[in-house]
Amino acid sequence: MRVDELRSLSIFEGVTDDQLAELIEGGTEVRVEPGVDLFRQGEHADFWWVLVEGSIDLVRRVGREDTVVGRLDVPGRWAGGFRAWDEHGVYLATGRGSTTGRMLRVPAEVLRERTSAWFPLGGHLIRGLYGTARSIESTARQRESLVTLGRLSAGLAHEINNPSAAATRAVDALEVACQTLLSSLGRLARNEISAQQFTALDALRLEIEPRVGAVPDPLDMADREEALSSWLTRHGVVREWIVAPPLAAAGVDVAWCERAAAVLEGSALEPGLEWVASTLSASALLSEVKESTRRISELVAAVKSYSQMDRASMQHIDVTDGIDNTLVMLGHKLRDGVTVVREYDADVPAIDAQAGELNQVWTNLIDNAVDAMDGSGTLRVTTRAAGDHVVVEIADTGPGMPPEVAARAFEAFYTTKDVGKGTGLGLDIARRIVEERHAGTITIDSHPGQTVLRVSLPVGPSEPRGRTAGVGL
Length: 473
Description:
Blueprint: H1 3-7, H2 17-26, E1 28-32, E2 37-39, E3 47-62, E4 65-72, E5 78-80, E6 94-107, H3 108-118, H4 120-190, H5 195-207, H6 218-234, H7 240-249, H8 254-263, H9 269-307, E7 314-317, H10 319-329, E8 337-344, E9 351-354, H11 355-372, E10 376-386, E11 389-396, H12 403-408, H13 427-436, E12 441-447, E13 450-458
Parallel strand pairs: 8-10
Antiparallel strand pairs: 1-6, 2-6, 3-4, 3-5, 3-6, 7-9, 10-11, 11-13, 12-13
Helix pairs in contact: 2-3, 3-4, 4-9, 5-8, 6-7, 7-9, 9-10, 10-11, 11-13
């Protein structure tokens, strides 16, 4: 490799020809071949790689599959060399040839020696900056991850607690109902009820049609239960408080009881009506258990889909699925004063995207919107097709952002929230996911009474943008 081949690379601006010659002498020219790995994720970053021509993909192992997270495709882009300043430095991704080309490979110790000799102050600054940045980022990311995980876990626990508690209560009550049912059958047998009487009673029971899913009027229920209690007391039913509530809840009236009394004579009336009431209670409680466990299963399925467990990172997805799963995950925040309005266009096509990463974006935008409304207002989620793009809008009825805040909202490390608030995923990272990982756009349109975060994503597969892909991997 010759000095004049490196002279045009912007990274070597200000470096003399003699210095370039020393760098070439200490390094090696490496051919780039499509599909061939040059360095691997997790290995010690013992070499500094500078692209001279061609291109390489930066591939990161995510779960059980390889994901392209960036690309070196501009001469002068570089990767690795971290052990020149940090003995624990490793490659953060695998460099895999994409097109034929060449790279300059310089050992980390040579890079350290040359920078120390040519730019001693620069070498000290890099070591200090690298160490400080590593420590701060590691601590901050760990803390943010724990806070976010704790918040989502607490919300999920709250969501699961309601149906699980309902199922537990229903099972306890079901045990009592089954004991009453068996006890009443025993009492009917001791009263020597005939087969014809039991058949007639069962026919009357089958006439009752429980109100599945209907919410009865409380006043109507109270009046019906009082009327039944009075009738049962007049007919010598001692435990009317056990019989009347389930009969009233199922819509039974006094006329039905009169027909039952005509079938059941004397002391058989009370156990016969108890048997009917306990079967109605058992049926209602089983429905409650079924509904509660179904809700728990839906929550578990939503969490699995949200986290994209056991799924490929790049998928052909319906964005509304990810949004709905995110709304489930944040359900504990969407109560009381928050009204959620979904406006999903039926013609929105599926897109090729990193589903798990987009779910993080939806989480951040929805969480921000709810916080902006201080827990009271309307959250409007809209999806629509726009040419070869899908547009998602998250709108809130909060006070809006001042122009100076909206102008800086996508800056790294900029936040208007207090410590411990939010998801730990800033709008800067959301922007990177949308723009650099999916070749989309994200914008803010804010004025008093309404703020809209608008995300536009291409329908077809997109290549990661290279402006951040080449440095530091």
